[in-house]
Amino acid sequence: MYKSMLSAALLSVPFTSLATSQPVTLPFIAEQATIDGQLNEPSWQRAKKITIDNVTWPYENSKSPVTTHAYVYEDGETLFIGFEANDPNPELIRAFYRDRDAAWDDDLVGLKIDSYNNSQLAYQFFINPLGVQQDSIENELTKHESSSWDGIWDSVGVIHDKGYTVEVAIPLRVLNFDDSVASKTMAMEFLRFLPRSERLRISNMQIDHGNNCWICQMPSYQGFEQAKQGNNVAIIPSVVLGKNETRDIDGAQVADWETENNTEASLDVKWGITPDITLNATINPDFSQVEADVAQLSVNNNFSLFFPEKRAFFLDNADYFASTLNLIHTRNIAQPDYGTKITGSKNGHTFAGFIANDTQTNVLIPGNLGSSLVALDEKSENGALRYRYDFESGLSLGSTATHRQSDDYKNTVYSIDSKYKPTVNDVFLVQVLKSQTQYSQDFIDELCDGDNCLQPEQVICELNSDCDYNEGVLRVLSKEQQSGTGYYLKYQHDEKYWRAFADYNYRDADLRADLGFISQVDFKKFTTGGEYRWYGDKGNWWNRANLYADWDITHNENNELLEKEAQTSFSVSGPLQSFFEVSVEHRNRTGLRHDKSRLDIDGNTDLFSENGVGFYSDFKPKAGVFASLYMYTGNAVDLANNRVGDKFHIRPVLNMNLGKHFEVRLRHTYEQLEADGSEVFTANLSDVRFTYQFNVNSFLRLAVIYTDLERNQANYIDDVDSQYKNLATQLLYSYKLNPQTVFFAGYSDNGYQDDELSSITKEQRTLFAKFSYAWLL
């Protein structure tokens, strides 16, 4: 009876009003604490004391086994927080010197701040006992946490015989908030993470696990009467020095090294035009990547690999551009000469826009069975706009527009989207998009030239029927002008013990979103599924278990079946922070055509059946050790030869700290495919990284990435290299005074071996250094 009355009450209120109805007042104290990890200034005695004693994960609101307090006050410019984290066994505290945003597995204290108190975004600030910072932004619309956001704030941690203390000073100017009102209200949650045999999430608030919006449940705090954002200006000049050597090793003869020396100066400016509007500008930026991406295996995969954005100009307020579909993926902009971005939020209105040129044009050509990235040696102009309005009733309406244009093509996308959460348990998502794309004849000719396609694994061209077959995009590029549409619909119902969902995704064959990451078109896909959850008690050996299942079916616009799939998985979390999952899947899917007489715009091949079993586990048995293992065995389509083979895939990972400063990260991927009674290929990919972290500011890292791919030429339709080996190394020194005042110096090289080379031969080597300094005015 009581439960039904409570449910009825919850359904009758807006989802944003579930937090504490009466805000807690934070004291104003005109006294700055010294950030040294010692809570001995008089100001801490007058600060607001907040008790952190409620375990919210993996359990729902149970008593904390440790005592934690936060002391909070503000002085009009800075939010000060002091944490007292007591521990009866301080020798078990997990804390290591790591790079920024890399200590998520350690003991942590911190807080989340919804600075507009509208349940849309939350800043996250976490600190390990040695003072290593982690910050990110949690986006309620996309359910994504972006660790790429970096604020400039101070923290120091000290471990002692009773546990540890942490002092934090967060300048209010790093937050976006409405300073048009005198007393400001922000939602906050104060947290401690205690990783032992279980990783406990300990909070100052209770959380309803039946409501998947945790930001919505954060209590409110008011104060900040003297807080003004002001017209903050950050000027960040940078200098890059580099020496790059390359040589041609394509063929039996190896050319001489060609050397290019490079010295570039650049300038970034960030200006708070008003308290709610921020302008970013960059001139001649160095967008070369400082650190190597995590290696990915691309064999037997027809879709382009996704790599996250890592560049500061595009990352700042990147969540203001986010929508359900990935329509703005700024890594498509490779080498701009300039960029300008404006973002803002006020009274429920959120807007963002940027323009940037690019000295080259990377275009993702999607199909229904594959995609390919085509690089054109010409400049392009790029722009994006995003607007969203958030109603108090749980309804959000948004719109996105993007445009790319070069001499030979242009692409424009318009989209509208909405999220509606009528109750704490239900959510509806919808997004509709339309694109206009125009290709010049020169653009099409660049992809297909003469009697042969320019590069393998790119585009089959209808204008040239003599192009040899390749493994790339099956969608034929046949029109100079294209108009495409697409939409996405989803409904989800979430309870504490179960959830159910259904979604429908449609994209026609002519849809293009060249500034985003839309790698598949010409399909209509329906998915439905659900999950049941079990919660263990503290006396059990396990704490959570999940049973998940879904079913989906996909057709192309010609109503040919592309894929029909059913999969289920069971997972359980247990001691030593362990997680185990077993999954079973059955899939009917299409392969790729090799019979050129059957090649047409919309046609696909016959269905193949795939059946497989997967297993994943990870655990953290002691401080500084993480180990995981993923395995898959079953049938898989051999995409290069249009048949079904037997696949075995295994990926072990081991991360280990040797002392407080030295870390080893080992990751290996092995995959083998057999068909028609013999091997098709065997692939090995190793990613090894050694890091010595001198302190919270600097580290030295060696990364070695090695690829070894062996193919059985007799078991392929087309000619392939029987072997391909690649070795890439990088030695990097980094010093970060803060996220914008940095110094990097390093060396990298890359080489490969194929059937024409007897050993791995270097084709590129680089020496580089970069220095940037942030002036905050």
From TrEMBL:
Domain of life where this protein originates: Bacteria
Domain Carbohydrate-binding residue range list: 35-191
Tagged with keyword DNA damage: no
Protein name: Carbohydrate binding family 9 domain-containing protein
Keywords, sorted A to Z: Signal
Signal peptide, first to last residue: 1-19
Location of the DUF5916 domain: 256-336
Chaperone listed as a keyword: no
